[in-house]
Design goal:
About 15% of the residues lie in helices and about 45% in strands. It is an alpha/beta fold. The termini are far apart. It is built from 6 helices and 19 strands. Strands 7, 8, 9, 10, 11, 12, 13, 14, 15, 16, 17, 18 and 19 form a 13-stranded mixed beta sheet that branches.
């Protein structure tokens, strides 16, 4: 529990060190106790555990050597870090520098880079830093249970990672950011549960995706956007429950080519509509994961995104920000079908 700072006035610390927390300032032990006060503040707070401290059983825990924190938490950017001081009774053993104390003060909140610098100062690590259970690591930091990592940061349970950050439970990733449960990723970001992904953005549960964005539950997709529950798709936009579909827009439960709202059109008509869509969407696309929201919450840095929290979202959420001009354009088309439009986007027209 949080106590008044007056309770440590005049007391000398019995130990000083470092503590790692989950992204929300909770601990893995002690019933997910949260170290933030009612206003969300952490630095300067003082905490007390009832009963006599016993390492790994009771008390408030931290490590005097920051490297020992790796034994208990994956040291990746989306976790939180702090320098701490312990007061009152203390419990320790010879296994490592982890201690349990009666009273814990959060002396200073550290950024991920601050924490890495503390590690370097403590152990004089160079080039690679913050590595736990890893091998084949080069110029990387914050690696837990990783192998074959080059120029990567914030990697947890990853292997074959190159020039990437914010990676969790993934392998074979090159130039990827904000990836959770993915493998075979090249130039991808904002991916949850994906495999065989190349040059893509915002994928939820997809495989065999190339040069596409805004895909949910799709496979075998090339040059597509706004694709949901579909496979075998080429050069399509805003489709749902389709297979073997190409050169089409706003289609539902169909297959074939050159279709707009399921109606057969000439390819020149598709190109005319597609060009207008590109002008009106102004960079917008349906986002089927929360990855970009998490990035915004974490300083617009992919390496700070808590990758395990990346998850898929519904089509209603994905399409809710569709530009009004684009909606009106769709409604103006002679091929427009209000029922198909609502089923795909969730928008009444």
């Amino acid at each position: 529990m949080i106590i008044d700072r007056k309770e440590i006035e005049g007391l000398e610390p019995v130990a000083e060190g470092y503590k790692v927390f989950n992204n929300d300032w909770t601990a893995n032990y002690g019933n997910n106790y949260c170290y933030a006060d009612e206003y969300g503040n952490v630095e300067g707070t003082v905490h007390k555990q009832e009963g006599f401290p016993e390492k790994c059983k009771n008390g408030l825990h931290f490590c005097e050597n920051p490297l020992d924190c790796f034994r208990y938490y994956p040291v990746v950017q989306w976790n939180k870090f702090a320098k701490v001081r312990g007061y009152g009774h203390i419990s320790r053993d010879d296994r490592d520098t982890k201690v349990a104390v009666e009273i814990l003060e959060i002396a200073k909140v550290l950024s991920f880079n601050d924490f890495l610098n503390e590690i370097k100062e403590y152990s004089k690590i160079s080039d690679g830093s913050g590595i736990n259970y890893g091998y084949g690591i080069w110029y990387s930091s914050g690696i837990s249970n990783g192998s074959g990592v080059n120029h990567g940061s914030g990697i947890n349970y990853g292997c074959g990672i190159n020039d990437s950050s914010g990676i969790s439970d993934s392998s074979g990733v090159n130039h990827g950011y904000g990836i959770n449960l993915g493998y075979g990723i090249n130039y991808g970001c904002g991916i949850s549960d994906g495999c065989g992904i190349s040059c893509v953005l915002d994928i939820n549960n997809g495989s065999g995706i190339s040069h596409s964005y805004g895909v949910s539950n799709g496979s075998g997709i090339n040059c597509g956007s706004g694709i949901e529950n579909s496979y075998g798709i080429y050069k399509c936009k805003y489709i749902k429950n389709c297979k073997g579909l190409s050169v089409s827009v706003m289609c539902l439960n169909t297959s074939g080519q050159n279709r707009v709202f399921n109606k057969k059109v000439k390819e020149s008509r598709f190109e005319e509509i597609n060009k207008k869509i590109e002008d009106l969407r102004d960079g917008w696309y349906p986002r089927f994961t929360n990855a970009l929201d998490l990035r915004k919450e974490n300083g617009e840095l992919w390496e700070n995104v808590p990758a395990p929290k990346i998850s898929g979202i519904s089509n209603i959420e994905a399409y809710k920000d569709m530009p009004k001009e684009l909606i009106e354009y769709f409604k103006s088309l002679p091929e427009f079908d209000a029922e198909i439009f609502k089923e795909i986007t969730g928008i009444e027209a």
